[in-house]
Design brief:
The protein contains 7 helices and 14 strands. The protein has 331 residues and is α+β, with helices and mostly antiparallel strands. Helix 2 packs across helix 3.
Length: 331
């Protein structure tokens, strides 16, 4: 009976650990939070700090200390890596979870989410302090009037220094480990110009129009720093266009690195050498997709409103290793 009882106790302890969503943090005023003493900052996993189980107080402290803009009814934050905008089962802490604490720190009545970024995307994210401003910003995003510029590190160099990708995208499934996974793939329209590489006319009525402007900012070896400016807002648009339209998947984007399967990204030998890793470790590279800038045209007294976020540490560190630089005029 002793052995089965130990197994039962072990199982209960495991279940209890699953019910603890956040790391224990003593309640304290957010202004007094000393992030340098937070243990998670020293637990680097896959080149980025694991924030998935920090408390709402701790995440709000990070957002407060890296605040980009706080004027009128608009707040701009730097979204950290690995934190989803909305929570859910198994998602851990989210930006939405930290907003009530951040609202108190900013001494405002409420904060509204007006758009979203993927969990693995870093950079500029806008919030609104009033329902009216939230409606205005949401409409601007919906009507595609907001200018969004993303910076990515690519595996491979695009064949042209700049251009426009105008290829529809649709969701498809790929099976891995016996279960389906969903991702967005490019679906070229059938025409006289494309019939050589589109085998037959496809029924792509469920595909969404997707347009991305791109330009190469710098490159070295098998890597490039590319600026992408999407005109549309299709799910995973930049990731799909970089991988399937340009043939240059984003560094660390393992979901979009192979067309017919899900597998870790296979890096060229030169990139592995400069990063100082072997191929099996490439699976731990974070995705290098950063929301660099958001522009609201003619928004305030007829002037554009700019919000710019610096590159995260892992991004700049890997750029240095790969000998890719930000052009001086864009620093």
């Amino acid at each position: 009976m002793a052995a089965p009882m130990r197994n039962v106790l072990r199982m209960l302890r495991y279940q209890k650990s699953l019910l603890t969503p956040y790391a224990a943090v003593s309640p304290q005023d957010i202004g007094d939070l000393n992030l340098s003493k937070e243990k998670f900052l020293y637990k680097w996993k896959h080149q980025v700090p694991d924030l998935s189980h920090v408390s709402p107080h701790t995440l709000a402290g990070i957002l407060k200390k890296t605040l980009l803009y706080d004027e009128g009814d608009i707040v701009a934050i730097e979204k950290p890596y690995g934190v989803p905008v909305h929570g859910g089962p198994g998602m851990g802490i989210s930006i939405a979870d930290a907003l009530p604490v951040l609202r108190q720190a900013l001494k405002t009545g409420r904060l509204y989410l007006v758009h979203r970024l993927d969990k693995e995307t870093t950079g500029v994210m806008l919030l609104a302090k009033s329902e009216d401003m939230a409606r205005q910003l949401h409409n601007l995003f919906r009507l595609r009037k907001v200018i969004k510029r993303y910076w990515v590190l690519s595996m491979g160099i695009p064949p042209h220094e700049e251009g426009i990708i105008d290829i529809p995208i649709k969701e498809t499934s790929v099976t891995a480990q016996g279960r389906p996974h969903y991702r967005m793939v490019c679906v070229p329209e059938y025409s006289e110009e494309t019939k050589l590489f589109v085998r037959k006319k496809r029924q792509s009525t469920d595909a969404q129009v997707a347009i991305t402007n791109f330009r190469v900012l710098d490159s070295y070896g098998s890597c490039a720093l590319v600026e992408c400016q999407p005109e549309t807002g299709v799910k995973h648009q930049i990731r799909s266009h970089m991988a399937y339209a340009l043939g240059c998947p984003i560094l660390g984007d393992h979901k979009y690195s192979n067309y017919n399967k899900l597998a870790p990204q296979q890096l060229p030998a030169g990139m592995l050498e400069r990063l100082g890793i072997q191929q099996p470790k490439a699976r731990y590279l974070p995705m290098h997709l950063h929301a660099r800038q958001v522009i609201l045209p003619d928004f305030r007294d007829g002037r554009n409103l700019y919000f710019t976020a610096r590159l995260p540490h892992f991004f700049t560190r890997n750029m240095k290793r790969l000998k890719v630089k930000v052009p001086k005029k864009l620093k």
